[in-house]
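Pilot study result, target chain (197 residues):
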Amino acid sequence: MAVSKKLLKHLDKGGIAYEVVSHKKVYTAYDLAQTLGEKLEGVAKTLLVKAELPKIEKRGQYFVVVVPASYRANFQKIKKMLKAKKVEIASEKVMDKLGLKPGAITPFAPFHGLEVLLDKALLKTRDVLVGAGSYTESLRVRVKDLHNQEGVTLGQFGDKAKIKLQAAVKKAKKIVKKAVKKTAKKTAKKVRKAVKR
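Predicted structure:
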């Protein structure tokens, strides 16, 4: 499914420059980075969160959180910034109601009629790949255009994630090192036996 013409029209109207990037079907920002050979910092992860706000608060209860793909959303930081009682990922049922697809949420606040919480770590990069409501197309946009939209709050909403892959590589190296040592010991033992003969 392609990027909706309605979204592209909205971006054109708002003066947001974009490039449509086609790719194989992906469902996560991490997979998008791997598929296109992009650094995780150059891909935005976009989540819909539900915040339980005080009753006097006039804002909506759903927020789009945008962090680099190398980050994890920090619900405590989001909760503190919103002065919310509770913050959690919105259900898929709610996303369906709002016309959003998990793994393909766009970070364009006015288009969804939702407030966007943009992590300031994204400002370290000039442009970023973002969800576009499609699993086979994404958009490359300038971070400053994301930041300058109406309804965007800039703050620290995530923490650098420890990539599982790094842990797996470290573990694999230990296993290989152990196997090499074991093989070297066996070989040395065989050589000593052969020399004695």
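One observation from the pilot: The two ends are 73 Å apart (CA to CA). A full batch analysis is planned for the follow-on phase.
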